[in-house]
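Please complete every field before forwarding. Incomplete forms are returned to the sender.

SECTION A: IDENTIFIERS
Entry label: holo-465
Bound molecule: 2-acetamido-2-deoxy-beta-D-glucopyranose
Molecule representation: SMILES string

SECTION B: INPUTS
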Amino acid sequence: MRSNIILAAALARIAAAAPAPAPQQFDFDAILNAPSPTATVPPVIAVASSSTTFSIDTASLAASIAAEITTAATASITGASASAASTEEPTTTVLDKRGNTQKTTSSSIWSTSTSTKSSSKSSSTLSSSTSSAKSSSVPVTSSTSTSTLQQSSSTTSSSSTACPTTPEAGTYCGFINPEDACAPQPAGSGPQVQPDTVAAFYAYPAFMQDALNAKTPSGYVETFKNLNASTSANSYLTYETLTSYNVSGCASFCDNTDLCTAFNIYIERDPSVNPTTNGTDIGWGSDCPNPSSITNYKCSLWGSNIDASSATNFGDYRDEFQVVIAGSNGYDKTNNTTPATQPGWSAPSGCSGGAISSGGSYWMGSNFYPGPFDPSVCAIYAQAQTSTNKQVAQQKGAKSYTPCNMFNAYMVQKNGIAQGTYCQLYDTVLSDSWASFSGAWSGATFFGVTSSWTYSLSELLDGKL
Ligand SMILES: *[C@@H]1O[C@H](CO)[C@@H](O)[C@H](O)[C@H]1NC(C)=O
Ligand SMILES: *[C@@H]1O[C@H](CO)[C@@H](O)[C@H](O)[C@H]1NC(C)=O
Ligand SMILES: *[C@@H]1O[C@H](CO)[C@@H](O)[C@H](O)[C@H]1NC(C)=O
Ligand SMILES: *[C@@H]1O[C@H](CO)[C@@H](O)[C@H](O)[C@H]1NC(C)=O
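SECTION C: PREDICTED COMPLEX
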C-alpha cells in the first residue's frame, strides 16, 4: 500500500516534470462568443429611490448549469496519482511556458484553447471519461447565469385587478406607469438646470463640486472621478436613485447587496415626462418628444472591480430628449473583499499571482459565465461535473470516476471591462504557485484576470465507486 502511494507520487512527479507542451486552458472564444447579460447598465426609465431589490435565483441557476453538464470530463492524471500529487508544485518548465504565453499574441493560444472544447454530446465523449486524453470533454460555454439574475423594481405597471376606487386619468389605481406616453417620470431630486440645455447641464458647477468633493467611503478605493459617462459592463447588479449625491448611502447599498464590490455614483439629465411622438393618450397627452429635464442622482452596483475604462455610457436619446451624465465617480472594494464560502467547499483562498491557466494533467475542463464575479456558478458547475462523471462511471460499471476536488474562479476583463466568471476544474488540490496567469493578448485586446480564488472540497473525494 505504502509503496503504491510512493510509486504513484513518483509517477505524478515524472508527469509534472516533463509535460507535453502545456495547453493554454483559457478559451478566448468562450468569452468572445458568450452572450451579454440582458442588462449591462441601469434601465433608462428610472424607478423611485431605494425600491430596487436584487436577488439571484440559486435554484434555477443550479438547474440550468447542471442541465448543461451532460458529458463526463477527466484529467490525464487521476485517482491515487492525482491525490498523491496534491502538494505538487508546478515545475519550472510549466511556469516558464505559462510565463511565455502571457506575452504571446499569436494564434497558438487560440488554437490550443479551442481544442479543449467539445460541442458534441455524443457517446464518444462519454466514453472518454476514463481515458487519459489531454483535453477534456466539457460542453461549450453558454450563458446560463444571466437569465436567472433577477431584478424587481417598484415600477408600476398595469394590473388586471379592479381598482377599489375610480382611478385618476392616466393612472392604474392611482399609480403612474412611467412607460405611458408623456407620463411623469419618478424621482428627480436634483436641481432643475436652467437654461434647460445639455451644455448647461454639463457646465453646472454644483455637479462638479459634488463629484470632486466626495469623500471615499472606508474600505473603498476611488477609481475614477467627475467623468461624463457611467459604468457599463456585464457585471451590472442593480441600481437606485438617491435624493442627493450621497456617496456613503450608495456605499451602504453596495455593502448590503450580494456580490457587490464596486459602485458608480453619478448625476443624470433625465426627461420630466416620458418623451413620446404621437403616442397613445392615456391622460398625459400624446406628443412630447423633448420635454423639460429633471436631475437624478443615480447609484449603480457592480459585481467586479470597475475603473475609468468601464465608464462608457455617455447617455442616449429618448425620442428627441438627450440623456447625459455628469459627476460620475467610481468606488471599488474588490481587493478588500473575500467572496462567499460555498456550501460543501472550504473557505476560498486568494491567488496572488492570477489564475491557474495551465493546471497540467489535473485539469478537467472550464466554463465561462458572463455576469458578475460569482464563484457559486463554479461550485455548481464543479458539483454537476462530478455527479455526471460518477453517473457515467456507474453506468459503465467502472470502479472509479474523476471527481472535481478544486476549482479556480476568476473574473475576466476585456480591455479593463468586466466580462464574467471563468471556472477551471481540477481533480486534485493545487497550490497557489500554479496561479500565475494574469492575462493574455489577442491582437489589440487584452484579456485580464482579476479576483482569482480557489475553492477545495471540504471533504476531498477519492473517486472510488
Ligand atoms: C466628456 O469627457 C471627455 C473626457 O474627459 C472629454 O473629452 C469630453 O469633452 C467630455 N464631453 C463633454 C460633452 O463634456
Ligand atoms: C445618505 O444615505 C444614508 C443611507 O441610506 C442615509 O442614512 C443618509 O441620511 C443619507 N444622507 C443624505 C445627506 O441624504
Ligand atoms: C399618429 O398616429 C396615428 C395612429 O397611429 C396615425 O394615423 C397618424 O398618421 C400619426 N400622425 C403622425 C403625424 O405621425
Ligand atoms: C487591486 O489589486 C490589483 C493587484 O494588486 C491592483 O493592480 C489594482 O490596482 C488594485 N485595485 C485597486 C482599486 O486598488
